[in-house]
Amino acid sequence: METQMIINNFILNELAKGRKKTINNDEDLLAEGIIDSLGILQLVAFIEEKFNFTVPDEDVVIENFMSVNALSSYLDQKLAAKH
Amino acid sequence: MSYRYLLHSAIYENALLRPRHPAVRFQKEELTYDQLAKNSAQLGNFLVDLGVKRGDRVGIYMNKNINSAVAIYGILSAGAAYVPLDPFAPIDRLIFVINDCQIRFLITNESRKDNLKEIIEKTTLEGIIGIQNDVEINVPSYSWNQIFRHPSSQPSINLVEQDLAYILYTSGSTGTPKGIMHTHRSGLSFAEWAVQTYQISSSDHISNHAPLHFDLSTFDFFAAAIAGATTVIIPEGITKLPASMARWIQDEKITIWYSVPFALIQMLERGGLDSKNLSSLRWVLFAGEPFPTKHLRNLMKTLPWARFSNLYGPTETNVCTYYHVAPLSEDSDEPIPIGIVCENTEDLVIDTEGKPLPDGQIGELLIRGGTVMKGYWGRPDLTEKGFFRRSMFGYCEDIFYRTGDLVQKMPDGNYKFLGRKDRQIKTRGYRVELDEVEAALLSHPAVHEAAAYPVPDVEGSNLIEAAIILVQGEKLSEDDLVKHLSGRLPNYAIPAKIVISDDFPRTSTGKINRRELQERAIKNF
């Protein structure tokens, strides 16, 4: 739950600043133009810093970055593996 | 085969020749040529019943989907011109375009519904096509189900090749969008040339990466239709993820890829190309802006079985020159040429006074031929300014389009691209080519991308500022970079300030948005 909130807040307040009032956790972030290619880079950088691990290029794919839910379950899985 | 003079004829021909062959694919959906022709005819008949007349404008405003192709061919079948709108454009720009060329109907889908109410209030739109009847919307709306109940035989409309086929809006230098009008003839001239030059056949899978409002998309759809090939539309979400994009090429067995260099560079850097099987790729085509040579060389090494070709041309001319990339030498980052003129295209290079120049001299490139636009919608003043008239034998004249690009013909006949005429600025009294500044920045091995732009200074002249993105993992100080530049540029051309950024703002077509960079710089000045 916490992961979802952190990601949702970052996207809403940084990447979609002024363009969106809320973001649904299952909303398609990419097809709807909420995040562009620059946004993806910022999001990856944010995750790497916040959760202290490197996201390999191969993981930056549609399945993991499509929605807040997709991204947080990817992250939870990665973080669980780390511990 | 009969003489083809309309863009949509190709799909009706293929519906007879290869009815069950896939014409267009999007994710898991596919339309055969038979289905595409029938659906397009149904939309065409529906539009005619609504009162759409030859030459009317119908907008396409939606995220890409399987019906994007139906929208294009249905509008053309009705004798109207299609106007593709950027689905992610600010609403004021959309309203401007709709009012500017008096779009009567809009083909859309649920994805854009939120914006429709405001658009309808501020425009003279008569109806919305592609969504269910909706009480929120003040004009009639029609669903695809209603449309697909109409007759599936091609509407009989008397059209000639000079009829308007589509209008593409680009940002003018003043910031007001201008509508570039293309006819069936100018679109076909380009698409038929492309089919010949790249030997496109029905077995090809052609990627559609560009948005519909970007002229690269006319290749993806029209060249494919002429050859009876399959256009595979890449979902917009995937275009933002290099690793997904590369896997998509593999899974869809794309044989011809066409995009701006940026998409290819992204895949090269972060797409994991080595781990994918991309052996289906026959041609990698790119256009829109120069491909930095060091990235192109790496890409060519990664995909040694593919051929690479650079297509050049402002939207106003479709494509007017091309260059099949020859093997690149290891020790030079010299930009590749834009190549030789296409067949049925005449070139002329003039100086600032309008006098034709001999080969080898630097001047503005002028283009005449079948692919050139009809003019700018509703702007005879801009159209007149955009064309150059050469008197012939004293009693007739040849009309050339002025590209605004500076070129130089090399001894081997290939043109070298030297930048935009208006990218030439004066700083402290000296004339500087901003593209040259960018090329010098890019020649440093740690520099991944570079943009140079003028910022007005207090004395009423310009300073040059540049922004760069470093190659991942590299470090570089402004001082070291200036040292590197001083060996390559005259002192006055060295940027007064170099900003290191994570990424650049991009236009909706994927090009570096230098105007946005410049505006930010002026704000911070």
UniProtKB/TrEMBL annotation, chain A:
Q: Which stretches make up the Carrier domain?
A: 1-79
Q: What SUPFAM superfamilies does the entry give?
A: ACP-like
Q: Which Pfam families match?
A: PP-binding
Identify the InterPro entries for this entry. Answer: ACP-like_sf, PP-bd_ACP
Query: What superkingdom heads the lineage?
Result: Bacteria
Protein's recorded name: Carrier domain-containing protein
